[in-house]
């Protein structure tokens, strides 16, 4: 059973635009929500993460928005660049430890 | 630091053969994870070790899959016998667990093709 649902599966954005990827979770025990970025031929790498005690976290052009009541969180990429073209995974973990449950992934293409 | 090291990077084998994938975690990390990535099923956690002890293997698809971690610097994932549906990219990741949630560092993966 998929516990983290991610949308869209693919996304095409023009350079300079805003990319938005959404995730929804079911397990209320989740308390840590990282986003991973994966380039072709590489393993995923941590991009940014948030805990549910804040509603937003920003690092450079990347922002996570978190809605605890709706059990949803999203990644916003401002001023999207061709170098941002990659697959993005949301994930979640709870008091089970370090085990991550990943969303299905979003393939982002930023057109120059 | 060299990061998580996986070998081989690519493996092509025939159905029924034994396949062994290897992983060297980052020195000092005490948690190790094996994942499988396919287009159909995305990124799936297969098994998780903490301090060399398997903690959760509920993601291991069936008895054909086995994983070991004989010491803190080495782990193997074995498939015997292999089947075409095992074709995927297998990732190893490691982290240092110290109470809170800690970043998982992924290796470059092993692309397995079973003919």
Give a concise summary.
Chain A has 112 residues and is mainly beta.
Characterization of the model:
The complex is a heterodimer of chains A (112) and B (115). With 112 residues, chain A is mainly beta. In chain A, strands 2, 4, 5, 9, 10 and 11 form a 6-stranded mixed β-sheet that branches. In chain A, strands 1-3-8-7-6 form a 5-stranded antiparallel β-sheet, with no helix packed on it. Helix content of chain A is 0%, strand content 57%. Chain A is globular. Chain B is mainly β. Chain B contains no helices and 11 strands. In chain B, strands 2, 4, 5, 6, 9, 10 and 11 form a 7-stranded mixed β-sheet that branches. In chain B, strands 1-3-8-7 form a 4-stranded antiparallel β-sheet, with no helix packed on it. In chain B, strand 5 and strand 6 form a beta hairpin. The mean pLDDT of chain B is 93. Classes of the chains: A mainly beta (112), B mainly beta (115). At the A-B interface, strand 5 and strand 10 of A face strand 5, strand 9 and strand 10 of B.
């Amino acid at each position: 059973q998929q516990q983290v649902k991610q949308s869209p599966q693919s996304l095409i954005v023009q350079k300079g635009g805003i990319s938005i990827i959404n995730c929804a979770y079911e397990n209320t025990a989740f308390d840590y929500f990282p986003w991973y970025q994966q380039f072709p031929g590489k393993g995923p790498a941590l991009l940014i993460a948030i805990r549910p005690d804040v509603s937003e976290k920003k690092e450079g052009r990347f922002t996570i928005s978190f809605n605890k009541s709706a059990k949803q969180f999203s990644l916003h990429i401002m001023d999207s660049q061709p170098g941002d073209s990659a697959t993005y995974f949301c994930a979640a973990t709870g008091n089970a430890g370090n085990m991550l449950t990943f969303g299905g992934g979003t393939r982002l293409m930023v057109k120059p | 630091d060299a990061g998580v090291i996986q070998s081989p990077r690519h493996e092509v084998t025939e159905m029924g053969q034994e396949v062994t994938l290897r992983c060297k975690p980052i020195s000092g990390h005490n948690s190790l994870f094996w994942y499988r990535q396919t287009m159909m099923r995305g990124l799936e956690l297969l098994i998780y070790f903490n301090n060399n002890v398997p903690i959760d293997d509920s993601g291991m698809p069936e008895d054909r899959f086995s994983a070991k971690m004989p010491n803190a610097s080495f782990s193997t994932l074995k498939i015997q016998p292999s089947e075409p549906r095992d074709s995927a990219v297998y990732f190893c990741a490691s982290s240092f667990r110290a109470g809170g949630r800690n970043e998982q560092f992924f290796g470059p993966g092993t692309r397995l093709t079973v003919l």
